[in-house]
């Protein structure tokens, strides 16, 4: 087998691992596949590499994929329309009451949703440092080289990311439909009244808000953190003459906001320790309509 064929065979045998790595960093399977393919194109260019000079081919391929993923993350964070990076493409919606609150699959779905939102709030270097070290066991020295940081700085990046992830205590996630619905109802009630004090009271101190306007409403994109910023934005939720339909989105307490029967937004909430910890609001008109269209029409309240 010549050097080019050997490189191709080795890359293909590593493609699954490399794609999993890129997907964990980018939180987007399709984008991860594109990154891995781009890495292969770069590696396979004539004169791009001398196979015999590489001591650790797996490490070398990992480096290329991580750096390409990091560049993709940085480019994405610079584009307002990609603040939450296609998160709304993977939403699943159903009517409330169509599954048991003790359904372990539903609980796991909610935890996964909440964790992904946390990861999306991290800066690109934080996410890379955390994912590589905590999920893939890559030593900090190697990560530091990838990020062009000192080892101490890289440890601090991972530590900051870890603290945000650990703030999501899955044992405190509210899974009882009635309990979490009462919290979300209190949120909308306070927003409708313009009661800032009541809004602050129902929000977790570390609350985050993610508005995803997609390509149709990029001006609505936002990533906010903290009670003050989120409560001030809450005035936008008080849509005059709006109808609120209780749903479940990816295992979380959800609401479809309609006006004149037209769906304007689909919102998902995680409730932690009796307060709202995360809000995700899909505002892209096309994607909202597509998501709501998957709800059964024969549901009876």
Layout of secondary structure:
Layout: H1 3-26, H2 29-44, H3 57-77, E1 93-95, H4 104-121, H5 124-135, H6 140-147, H7 151-167, H8 177-193, H9 196-202, E2 203-212, E3 222-225, H10 227-233, E4 243-249, E5 252-259, E6 262-272, E7 275-282, H11 285-292
Parallel strand pairs: 2-7
Antiparallel strand pairs: 1-4, 2-3, 4-5, 5-6, 6-7
Helix pairs in contact: 1-2, 1-3, 2-3, 5-6, 5-7, 6-7, 8-9
What do you see in this structure?
- Pfam families: Sigma70_r2, Sigma70_r4_2.
- The chain is of the alpha+beta class and 301 residues long.
- It folds into 3 domains: 1-86, Rna Polymerase Sigma Factor, Chain: A; 122-168; 172-294, Nuclear Transport Factor 2, Chain: A (Roll).
- It contains 11 helices and 7 strands.
- It has helices spanning 3-26, 29-44, 57-77, 104-121, 124-135, 140-147, 151-167, 177-193, 196-202, 227-233, 285-292; strands spanning 93-95, 203-212, 222-225, 243-249, 252-259, 262-272, 275-282.
- The protein has a 7-stranded mixed beta sheet with strand order 1-4-5-6-7-2-3, sandwiched between helices.
Order of helices and strands: HHHEHHHHHHEEHEEEEH
Which overall shape is indicated by the principal axes computed on the Cα atoms? elongated
Strand order of the largest sheet: 1-4-5-6-7-2-3
- Residue windows where pLDDT falls under 50 for at least 5 positions: none
Structural class: alpha+beta
Number of strands: 7
CATH architecture of the largest domain: Roll
Per DSSP, what share of the residues sits in E-state strands of 2 or more residues? 15-25%
Number of helices: 11
Number of domains: 3
CATH level-3 fold name of the largest domain:
Nuclear Transport Factor 2, Chain: A
The amount of helix comes to 40-55%
Radius of gyration using CA atoms only: 22 Å
CATH class bucket of the largest domain: Alpha Beta
Q: Report the sheet with the most strands, covering strand number, pairing sense and barrel closure.
A: 7 strands, mixed
Q: What is the mean predicted local confidence, pLDDT?
A: 85
Question: How many angstroms separate the termini?
Answer: 66 Å
Protein name: RNA polymerase sigma-70 factor, ECF subfamily
Pfam families: Sigma70_r2, Sigma70_r4_2
GO molecular function, one term: sigma factor activity
InterPro entries: ECF_Sigma-70_Domain, NTF2-like_dom_sf, RNA_pol_sigma-70_dom, RNA_pol_sigma70_r2, RNA_pol_sigma70_r4_t2, RNA_pol_sigma_r2, RNA_pol_sigma_r3/r4-like, WH-like_DNA-bd_sf
């Amino acid at each position: 087998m010549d050097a080019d064929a050997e490189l191709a065979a080795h890359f293909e045998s590593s493609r699954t691992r490399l794609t999993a790595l890129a997907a964990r960093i980018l939180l987007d399977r399709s984008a991860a596949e594109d990154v891995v393919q781009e890495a292969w194109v770069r590696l396979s260019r004539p004169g791009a590499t001398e196979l015999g000079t590489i001591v650790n081919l797996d490490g070398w391929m990992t480096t290329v994929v991580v750096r390409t993923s990091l560049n993709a993350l940085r480019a994405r964070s610079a584009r307002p329309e990609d603040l939450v990076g296609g998160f709304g493409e993977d939403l699943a919606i159903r009517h409330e009451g169509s599954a048991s609150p003790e359904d372990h699959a539903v609980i796991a779905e909610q935890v996964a949703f909440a964790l992904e939102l946390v990861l999306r709030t991290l800066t690109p270097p934080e996410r890379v440092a955390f994912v590589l070290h905590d999920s893939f066991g890559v030593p900090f020295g190697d990560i530091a080289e990838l990020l062009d940081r000192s080892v101490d700085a890289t440890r601090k990046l991972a530590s900051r990311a870890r603290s945000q992830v650990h703030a999501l205590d899955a044992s405190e996630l509210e899974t009882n439909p009635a309990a979490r619905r009462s919290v979300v109802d209190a949120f909308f009630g306070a927003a409708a009244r313009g009661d800032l004090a009541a809004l602050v009271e129902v929000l977790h101190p570390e609350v985050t808000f993610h508005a995803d306007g997609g390509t149709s409403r990029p001006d609505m994109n936002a990533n906010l953190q903290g009670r003050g910023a989120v409560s001030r934005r809450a005035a936008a939720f008080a849509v005059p003459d709006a109808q609120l339909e209780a749903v479940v989105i990816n295992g979380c307490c959800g609401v479809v906001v309609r006006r004149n029967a037209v769906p304007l937004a689909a919102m998902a909430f995680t409730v932690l320790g009796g307060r709202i910890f995360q809000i995700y609001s899909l505002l892209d008109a096309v994607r909202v309509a597509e998501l709501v269209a998957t709800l059964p029409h024969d549901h009876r309240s």
